[in-house]
Amino acid sequence: MNELLNVSASPHVRSKDTTKSIMRDVAIAMIPSSVFGIYNFGVNALLLILTCVATCVLSEYIYEKGMHRPITTGDYSAVVTGLILALNLPSSAPLWMAMLGSVFAIIVVKQLFGGLGQNFMNPALAARCFLMISFTGRMTDFAVTKATNFINGAMGIDGFSGATPLAVAKAGDSVDLLSMFIGGTAGTIGETSALCLLIGAAYLMVKKIISPKIPFIYIGTLLVFALIFGGYGFDINYLGAQLLGGGLIFGAFFMATDYVTSPITPMGQIIFAISLGLLTGIFRIFGGSAEGVSYAIIICNLLVPLMERVTIPVAFGWEGKRNGK
Amino acid sequence: MTVGTFKGGIHPFDGKNLSKDFTTKVVLPKGELVYPMAQHIGAPAKPIVSVGDKVLVGQKIGEAQGFVSANICCSVSGVVKAIEKRLTVSGSMVDCVVIENDNEYTPIDTLGKKRDYTKLTKEEIREGIKEAGIVGMGGAGFPTHIKLTPKDDNAIDYILVNGAECEPYLTSDYRMMLEEPEKIVGGLKVILQLFDHAKGLICIEDNKPEAIKRLKELVKNEERMEVTVLETKYPQGAERQLIYAATGRKINSSMLPSDAGCVVDNVDTVISIYMAICESTPLIRRIVTVTGDAIKSPQNFNVKTGTNYAELIDAAGGFTSQPEKIVSGGPMMGIALFNINIPVTKTSSALLCLTKDEVAEQEPTACIRCGRCVEACPSKVIPQKLLEYAEKFDDEGFQKLNGMECCECGSCTFVCPARRRLTQAFKQTRRSILSNRKK
Lengths: 325, 439
Known about the structure:
heterodimer
């Protein structure tokens, strides 16, 4: 007992979860959607996913190296950003666009604002919106898919053209919900299969990485909004298209739940989720485009500091009393 | 069966299996005994013996000074060897009375004399508790006689015996509930004698079914007592959370338990009250859990206060391998020691010896705002935001965001995936705010 012992302030134990393990789990949760996307859309989807992930990790590394900051590429957060961005691209997108989007996400949205934890909006989504505005044509060029032909062929339905089911539903035509659920419709690489997304979401919820609070309230609000203002009343086909289409499930479970850009206060999370539902509904029903998830999420991202400020909870034992004094 | 609980909290690895099944062993001190005059909240006691004096077991050697203070009694017989500053658990040098043990254990005349508490007046009971130097043995060390003297005795509805023992690794309270449950019930009877309208609740977490069974049997014919079962969760034994879980009443940092009609005392404190009042024995012993993966045979010891910690490690068979960290208390709120050559005090609940200091290897990284700290916080504050203020030394913002409600339980730091040192920063900020308030 001659050596001095370690001394630090309590607590002296920590839970197992680390930033790295959490980010890794989020990446794992996107594997089903990625695999399905590659099966569905072919080798170009694979190339896009690889390009996005590699560019994100590389740009983070180069930036941090150049700025003499600690290298944080090991925490998987850049991988997650790359994956989300790739799954948000149409399979027909050229690789240079994927690279441009990735650099924008990591350098402009994430690193220039202070790196992990400091970005004011979801980097991948911001990049998607950036690409959407810059290259609208290419970003909405949805290919007819292998799975489309296979599933529809097996069920004896005429294949869709390149229009997304949500656009079809908005035009008043009926859509095939089963096909949307499995993923046999037009859309971006990762958004088409609700089934694969839900498998990933279930994984995240079981591992307690995300809480069902934000996605469920978000989706619920949107459905109620569509029921009231959609103009079709209680029409399963229309509401189903709203639920399964337009990346709602992807957005609700994987992007609206992004820790950094969603409120940390319990009440703030509820306000955030309801706002998402309302905005998405407004964009989808009253807006020019059929979709609105991405824009709703990044707009609400910007409102997070405000939402937090007005929802600081009352501390234990102060309920009904004057707080803070 | 309803199980009381609160919102928030965590479930750390509890490590209680290491020591919970071994009967408590009495350990007699081998070397000199050291009695710090400050081992409670409040003013340090003043030594009332001089070097060379002969002292007996149970003799008062430190006199309480001022309102919030406590007496210190000697746990052995022998000669006062020195009165000097020695290292204590807090890491600082404190005035101590050092006694050379004569190994005779000659008691003072009154020691162990049986007394019938029902024949004592309330004043006599309170005086007896004060004389015995009893303080909260759960860790805080607040003088018990003050706790038991609220403004209005009749406003007290509940006496809560805190047997939650939510700190991981600790099993001393558990062993006492199994081995000396009669004394717990006896001590509670003494306390209930002080408060005519109060009901005694013995609060135990549901991971201690044996203890629950034993105490339920003992109180089944006691009209004014009940066993309250609580969910196993840290920090269930924290005063505010315990009161809420057991009674549904809430207090905040500006209130005392008595404001909610409650008095909370730890299991070992209640036993000490029994021994002080019914057996005329002051607080001179303590149950200490010696445990951790670096200890050969983890177990609980019945130790005389003033015994050197190093002797306890020997009594537990020594180390299996060199520990990297030794903690006085549990892993959540205990104090890390750089040197174990310090004495057991009234509040020493455990000696936890870890071969690996997992905290040392984990550097803080950027906050990802995951909100785990918010979920874990039993005080319902936003630790993530508090840390931003604490790091900027913005005391005002810290207080505005309810920083003073933090109970320093460490739950937020435990769950933080970015390994940020939240509790550590809060402790520092709270100390500085409190000391500025005093100015």
